[in-house]
Please model this.
Amino acid sequence: MSIDNIRNECEDSLYTYAQIMFPNRYFGDVHRDFFMFFEESLKRGLEDGKGDNSAALIPRDHQKSFGIAVACSWAVTKFPWFTVTYVSSNPKLSQRQLTIIKNVFKSEVHRELWPKMMNYEIHQRTKQWEHKPTGTWTLDEISIDHPERPKDEKDPTVAATSAKSTNTGAHYKMCIFDDLVTNENYASSTERQAIKEVYQSYASIVSAGSIKWMVGTRYGDSDLYGELKEIEYEVFDEQNEHCIDTKPLWNWFERTVEDSKHKDGSGNYLWPRQKCTDNQWYGFNRTELSKKRSESFNLPLFYSQYYNDPNAAAVDKITNDCFMYIQPKLLEQRQGKWWYGNKELKVFCGMDLAFSEGSGAKKVKRDYTAIAVIAWDADGYLYVLDLQRFQTADARVYYDKVIQMHQYWNFRDVTVETNAGGNVIANFVQDEIRKAGETLVVKHQTKNQREGSKEERNAQLFEPLYRGKSVYHTKGGYTRLLEEELRLNKPPHDDLKDALWIAVTNSTRMSKPKLITNRNRNVVRAESRFLNRGRKRA
Model:
């Protein structure tokens, strides 16, 4: 293929341009779609001088910053008269991005395809091509030498700047926002407001009909990207008299690290892990995502950054500091009753049902069934003693799990949520219990007993308990998953939290006996040791 043909294909396709400039780079389908998104944005923006605003929100570690720097170099290559302000959260990042752009322009392949872009000379000693810029080339800006760039143009071709400094005296044809929102500037409402003002300042210095590009990662509901997604503008008729429509101010390209609905790593990956020709590994698989998740001390932030799901990250009311743990040596059984140190425990159980349908290849897995065993002591402390979590299509498994836990913990009844066919399972378990001669009672609870949304009722019950340091967990098993569900407002799974809610709201809290005097009858009586906790039982 001739040089001219390659040049034309590169100018027509941003994805082809990226592959030619970086032949050893591992580009996945997400990067092809990413490049096509901004390619279409440039076409729209130049059509009749309309301008365009396009933003890409993709997970961390998917090379979005590298991609937008390559896209910037492509836009300038196609239209050498462009002037671009490149805005990052801090000066070091913007300078690093400008270096990527510089290296593209100074590469041998770019020089061969577009020899007019920059001024080159043969070095007298080395006899090699050497870049001799006639314009400004610094850490913060570059100016190309292409003849289509106006000689009287005062603004640089690309100016790298940051949220720390706004060049209000310049007027650019393109503005690129690269990772404006960071963990540091999202930490407080003051900083969040400041970054929104930075965006507004830069948006005001670009020319009318300009093109604005943005790449970033979500940090929470109230971040800049969340605000921009809500903005619409009015569209008027040809006479500019009547508003005929409203449209979003920004076009959005949004992707998640993988596509499982439970966000548990079991889906198809956006950028599958692969070893590249430079012997470096790129992309994600289930193990690598699990590492990222395990290293995250802020799970709402993890889901924001890898799943574009802010998940009310600013409302992280149950934190790691709220969790306390049982000392195993203090938990023991004496004469059929459980004790924690010198405190007697009253034990209860709750089960949240989710069963599989069908069999073989036609089997459909639903959410997990979860069982929670809890206890109260006389001082009002709650103990989460045992947790089970499983998927099954066999009704016998439900009975086996419940009876196994009953025989160990000796609770008198188990409350089961009986929605969506749950009555069948609950009745089967009760029948099997009778056949086995066990004394365990299966109680039914239906969804109409709950008030408000699941998030509201969970917050109402759990936040006071955990923030008041009134709950003890056992270490190991499914405790870590339960704690994740408790910390998140909308976790990928909530089966353990639901089972815990069922157990707690259908339990009775122990209290120390108190003497109550009826003055009218001069009678002294003992108050019941057990006080109802939550709703009436079904």
